[in-house]
């Protein structure tokens, strides 16, 4: 497995990396989203190799949302994690924005130790607790099977889940968790007041310290 095969773009630190981070995108986006670029730049500035990569559905077509592609997208996540372990002897962190974070969390929840090494942490941006306007359709049951430290970075105005709902979701995970609240931010986590990338990376590093 190579960087090209996972459709990844690498952000390199100065010097030998402390570890590797692989992050993927939301349902309507791709690896070039502004959020992923900022977060990967931040990880590289802290001495980590950071890679933003496209999920398999996005590799097949440049536009549009995923359609019946969860199984292959999760395979793509697992491949990215295995690739990260192949390029570093240090810790590996994985995650993503919205749909990409959900797919990553599902891979981690169903982890097969023989097929995929353990992560040091999971980092989820704008986790879609439920579809907008449908709080009864929660997407959180699998979180109970996650046993690695997890960071949720979430906007207070995100229609995919309130901060209280995200905190309740985090409480399902039987490992250390942290919720980075971004006041006023919506699903894209845009903020004029908070350096979202710095806050998310700092929280993740504290969990793996």
From TrEMBL:
Residues in KANL3/Tex30 alpha/beta hydrolase-like domain copies: 20-193
Gene3D superfamilies: alpha/beta hydrolase
InterPro entries registered for this protein in UniProt: AB_hydrolase_fold, KANL3/Tex30_Abhydrolase, NSL3/Tex30
Coiled-coil ranges per UniProt: none
Protein name, per record: KANL3/Tex30 alpha/beta hydrolase-like domain-containing protein
The organism of origin for this protein: Mycolicibacterium thermoresistibile (strain ATCC 19527 / DSM 44167 / CIP 105390 / JCM 6362 / NCTC 10409 / 316)
């Amino acid at each position: 497995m190579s960087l090209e095969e996972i459709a990844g773009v690498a952000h390199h630190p100065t010097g030998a990396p402390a570890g590797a981070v692989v992050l993927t995108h939301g349902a309507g986006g791709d690896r070039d989203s502004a959020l992923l670029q900022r977060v990967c730049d931040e990880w590289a500035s802290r001495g980590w190799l950071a890679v933003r990569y496209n999920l398999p559905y996005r590799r097949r077509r440049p536009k549009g949302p995923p359609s019946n592609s969860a199984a292959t997208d999760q395979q793509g996540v697992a491949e990215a994690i295995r690739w990260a372990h192949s390029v570093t002897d240090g810790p590996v962190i994985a995650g993503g924005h919205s749909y990409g974070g959900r797919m990553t969390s599902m891979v981690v929840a169903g982890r097969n130790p023989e097929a995929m090494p353990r992560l040091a942490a999971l980092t989820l941006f704008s986790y879609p607790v439920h579809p907008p306007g449908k709080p009864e359709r929660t997407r959180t049951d699998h979180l109970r099977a996650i046993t690695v430290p997890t960071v949720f970075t979430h906007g207070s105005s995100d229609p995919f889940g309130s901060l209280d709902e995200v905190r309740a979701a985090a409480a399902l995970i039987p490992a250390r968790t942290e919720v980075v609240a971004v006041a006023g931010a919506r699903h894209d986590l845009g903020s004029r007041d908070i350096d979202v990338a710095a806050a998310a990376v700092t929280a993740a590093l504290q969990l793996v310290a």
